[in-house]
Amino acid sequence: MHFLQAEMLWALLLAPLLLGFYLYLIRRRRRQVLTFSSLRLIHEAMASSSRWRRHLPPALVFLAFVLALLAMARPVARITLPADYMTLVMAMDVSRSMLATDVEPNRIQAAQKAAKEFLQALPAGVRVAIVSFAGTAQVVQHVSDRREDWVAAIDRFQLQRGTATGSGLLMALSTLRPDAPIQLESTLYGGASQRGLAESQGQSLEDRRKSAPPKEIVPVPPGSYTGGAIVLLSDGRRTTGPDPLEAAKLAANLGVRVYTVGFGTPNGFIPGYEGYSFFTQVDEETLKAVAKVTEAEYFKAGTANELKKVYEHLSSQFTLERKDTEVSVVMAGVALLLLLLALALSVRWFRAGAPKLVTSP
């Protein structure tokens, strides 16, 4: 929770003054106690009124006063609400380490099966794009709401050498936020490859150069983007491409959450595959850092069943969105209710027990 007018919090210093004034009145009242002629009258008076009843209405008034002061500072809370729609980008590792058989039948087949089940269970309001990455990254399915397109894209995965986790994250971020000024071409491909990328997207390189210069990214609070999220699955560590932590900082500046999934066990091994050795152990530290920077979550899945449970949990996350909402009206309403409750209790407890004045004829 934060406050739009935090300077008004100084008014909370009035609360201790109010409490001190109340304690002063109690002590003053005790000094003015009348002397009774009989101790029996004192015991009867003490039995007729309870101590906690006497202090409860003032306590409610005090709480109402504090809440009213907090409402003046205009508090803002992050509230989770049902999402109308969301775009989800899945970035999946297709490096050859996914051939490891520590997960039956192997990592890639188990990951494909779990991913397809996850996508099939998503609510109707979620759109999906799919990015694969190994030595490079590519979009294998652009944003679509057709489940058959998602499944077909996952079935088209082709394993490659290398693990460019940062490239996969940047490609996913650019797919989710095409309006953001992300220097994707220069970061992933360099100047020599910009022409081929421009032509593949139906735009000449000359047109790109004539276009307006890229704008600078204005940072927003991490996790504040409610239009979508990224799920990144990897089973190894980066061997090429940009630093995934730098890509995560860019995602955080755009407010995009990146949920990361580490898939595989420490025993993953591919013996004698084309004479190469591969990293088959999950780089958990990097994946945890990516999730933390973007205010998302990291999940570890060592089996196909665990990966399925991770996706089931994520499915529930993507049907909700978090919004910053001012709650000053709520606090003011609670303060008013406390005041009314204090007034009602005072009338019920003390007026009913007040002595009546009886005059003799």
Polypeptide structure, described:
This protein is α/β, with parallel strands linked by helices and 361 residues long. It folds into two domains: 2-32 and 51-78 and 326-351, no CATH class; 84-178 and 210-318, 3-Layer(aba) Sandwich (Rossmann fold), CATH 3.40.50.410. The chain has helices spanning 14-31, 39-48, 51-72, 107-120, 147-155, 165-176, 184-188, 194-200, 205-210, 244-253, 284-293, 304-317, 328-351, and strands spanning 2-3, 75-82, 86-93, 126-133, 137-144, 228-234, 258-263, 298-301, 320-326. A six-stranded mixed sheet has the order 5-4-3-6-7-8, sandwiched between helices. The chain is elongated and about 90 Å long.
Structure at a glance:
The chain is α/β, with parallel strands linked by helices and 361 residues long. The chain has helices spanning 14-31, 39-48, 51-72, 107-120, 147-155, 165-176, 184-188, 194-200, 205-210, 244-253, 284-293, 304-317, 328-351, and strands spanning 2-3, 75-82, 86-93, 126-133, 137-144, 228-234, 258-263, 298-301, 320-326. It has two domains: 2-32 and 51-78 and 326-351, no CATH class; 84-178 and 210-318, von Willebrand factor, type A domain (Rossmann fold), CATH 3.40.50.410.
Topology record:
Blueprint: E1 2-3, H1 14-31, H2 39-48, H3 51-72, E2 75-82, E3 86-93, H4 107-120, E4 126-133, E5 137-144, H5 147-155, H6 165-176, H7 184-188, H8 194-200, H9 205-210, E6 228-234, H10 244-253, E7 258-263, H11 284-293, E8 298-301, H12 304-317, E9 320-326, H13 328-351
Parallel strand pairs: 3-4, 3-6, 6-7, 7-8
Antiparallel strand pairs: 1-2, 2-9, 4-5
Helix pairs in contact: 1-3, 3-13, 4-5, 4-12, 6-10, 10-11
